[in-house]
Amino acid sequence: MKEKVKEIVQAIKKLTPKKRKIKIMNVCGSHEHTITYYGLRSLMPENLELVPGPGCPVCVCSESDVINAIELSKRPDTILVTYGDMLRVPTRIGSIRSNGGNYRMVTAPHEVIKIAEENQNKLVVFFSIGFETTTAPTAAMIEAGIPENVKILTSQKLTPEIMEVLMNDSKVGVDAFIAPGHVSAIVGSNAWRIFPEKYGIPTVVAGFEPQNLLLAILRILYQIAEGRAEIENVYRGVVKPEGNRKAQGLMYKYFYKTAVNWRGIGYIPNSGLEIRPEYSEIDAKVFFELPEIEEEKVPGCICDRIVLGKAYPNECKLFSVACTPRNPKGPCMVSVEGACNIWYRFGRNER
To answer: What is the pLDDT of residues 183-231, one digit of tens each?
Structure first.
């Protein structure tokens, strides 16, 4: 294994153009974890830049949705249920956990059903956040049938759409994408064709082992050297060109594409999923008539720039001083998939 890694790294160094800078963006928190934990940046030529992008769904969940979740958890007739990371996401009024409301943590949507069945005298609100990988299980939960006391507060985002926003931002300047493995298992490698075909950007789907990520980087460099821009897949054991058609069908049976707010970025057309009107009886936003709350930026926090690939975590003045995993000031420090959290824990080579 070590010899194979050395061989790939040598090939990367040989193929990297000497007279220009190459910027490759990963769009997956798990990819960023692998890159940082194993010090892959330290193996790259100086003019090959590996930059983290919007790969953390916790980081981009709108402040409005989190504040609404906090307020719902304070209702005496309601139990708020969500994933563990969401309990600690900071807002102007604190986090879900710090507000001391009635909340429960789950690791998967099916656990929501058990909580609802055990608390039939309460409304159980599932604060469902994430990219395509968490939307599909939520849709499957609805398909299987949910108790009448379950409502869903959705904050689901779509990955290809945010990547296209990056392509239209001249300040980002991405030369290639490493497409996210877990999301690709749902949407398929074909979902990324727009980037080579419309924007001329090589895009390679990768898994999470260091060797697989290095192989993805190598395949990108081959394309650049040969003047090509194509979609490639080095995670073929998991990702198919068409993706998981059943999961996609369930997603769009219960959800529809619409403009949603990305924290620190703003509203992006067709970049999120909301519950279809015909299922409004389970939509917490409709049932509770939840307001849209204007976002307030955290003073000094640059999570928005980090998510967009315009800055690294250690460029933030709050990083590792005022902002730590124990006391996060911005959302990028909360989740284990957040770039700031990853760099704080493993980024010794990045500082």
So the answer is: 999 999 999 999 999 999 999 999 999 999 999 999 999 999 999 999 9
What distance in Å separates the CA atoms of residue 335 and residue 102, rounded to the nearest whole number?
Answer: 21
Q: Please give the helix or strand (H or E) that residue 286 lies within, else none.
A: helix 284-287
Share above pLDDT 90 across residues of the chain, in percent, rounded to a whole number = 92
Query: From CA 178, how far away is CA 155, in angstroms rounded?
Result: 24
For 100-244, where are the alpha helices, taking DSSP H only?
A: 110-118, 132-144, 159-167, 181-187, 194-199, 210-225
Residues with Cβ within 8 Å of 100's Cβ and at least 6 positions away in sequence, in order, are none
Instruction: For residues 56 and 79, give the distance between their C-alpha atoms in angstroms, rounded to a whole number.
Output: 25
What is d(CA 22, CA 313) in angstroms, rounded to the nearest whole number?
Answer: 20
Asked whether residue 205 falls in the same domain as residue 116, the answer is: no
Query: Do 63 and 92 share a domain, yes or no?
Result: yes
Q: Is 122 helix (H, G, I), strand (E, B) or coil?
A: coil
Task: Assign residue 114 the CATH number of its domain.
Answer: 3.40.50.11740
Residue 1, pLDDT > 70, answer no
pLDDT tens track for 63-103: 999 999 999 999 999 999 999 999 999 999 999 999 988 99
Number of domains present in the structure of the chain: 3
Instruction: Tell how strand 78-83 and strand 203-205 pair up.
Output: unpaired
Give the range of the structural domain holding residue 103, as residue numbers without chain letter.
58-159+243-287
Terminal CA-CA length for the chain:
28
Q: Are residues 149 and 283 in the same domain?
A: yes
User: Is residue 294 situated within a structural domain?
Assistant: no
Instruction: Return d(Cα 172, Cα 82) in angstroms, integer.
Output: 33
Helices (H), 146-193: 159-167, 181-187
Please determine, for residue 168, whether its predicted confidence score (pLDDT) is greater than 70. yes
pLDDT value of residue 128: 97
Question: What would the pLDDT profile of 239-254 be if each residue is shown by its tens digit?
Answer: 999 999 999 999 999 9
Neighbours of 289 (CB within 10 A): 7
Beta bridge partner(s), residue 182:
none
